Amino acid sequence: MMVKAGILSDTHLNSPEPLFRQLVERCFSDCEVIIHAGDLTDLSVLDPFAGKTIHAVCGNMCRGTARTSLERSKIFRLGAFTIGLTHGAGLGYDIESGLWELFPEVDCMVYGHTHRPVCHRVGGTLVINPGSFRSTGRWGAAGTYALLEAGKTLQARIHQVPQL
Fold first, then answer.
1. How far apart are alpha carbons 43 and 9 in whole angstroms?
2. Which of 20, 6, 18, 22 shows the shortest CA–CA distance to 134?
3. Tens digit of each residue's pLDDT (9 = 90 or more) over 105-114
4. What are the CA-CA distances from residue 153 to residues 78, 99, 110, 125 (Å)?
5. CB 154 within 8 A of CB 106
6. DSSP string spanning 45-56?
7. Using CB atoms within 10 A of its CB, is residue 149 exposed (0-12), middle (13-18) or buried (19+)?
8. What is the pLDDT of residue 1?
9. Separation between Cα atoms, residue 68 and residue 42, nearest integer Å
């Protein structure tokens, strides 16, 4: 059985505004699982994902209940695979090096913070940064997200957030 997960990060919203809700519906409607790699800012940003399994972590810009109720990092299962999730702030300039210390034995590492999308393998480990969902990338770059499919293997791809 295949499980499809939508991955986003760095939404930096105080509430789930109407445009965000529309984009969530367009990008993640067929995902059973949502993975948010931090900097939601406010916990209500997860409201549009009601009914889906949600894995989220706290980022350095989270406040209020997002800061107090979300872990800084976590490990969970997606199908037959183990996923490590963290925002990445505090791991130094080379965040990916710090991920190996946090998650030495996972099948996939997901992080955020840099607003730069990354999707590659190091040995047998898949490394994903979905970038910033809300077009807060460098120099006005379009927003990005990732879709992850867990079946017999783990497959992921970065996508550009559509213009509405």
1. 13
2. 20
3. 999 999 999 9
4. 11, 21, 16, 11
5. no
6. GGGGGTTSEEEE
7. middle
8. 85
9. 11
Supply the pTM of this predicted model: 0.94
Model confidence at 59: pLDDT above 70:
yes
CB 143 within 8 A of CB 131: yes
- The two three-digit tokens of residue 64, written as one number: 């209020």
Query: pLDDT for 117-148, tens place per residue?
Result: 999 999 999 999 999 998 765 556 689 999 99
| Three-state DSSP state, 130 | coil
**Token pair in block for residue 148:** 């992850």
The answer for 79, left when phi > 0, alpha when psi is -120 to 50, beta otherwise, is left
The per-residue pLDDT for 139 is 57
The mean predicted confidence, pLDDT, of the chain is: 93
List, in order of start, the domains of the chain with CATH numbers.
Answer: 3-160 (3.60.21.10)
Structural element, H or E, at residue 21: helix 18-28
- Maximum C-alpha span of the chain: 41
Strand pairing report for 118-122 and 125-129:
antiparallel
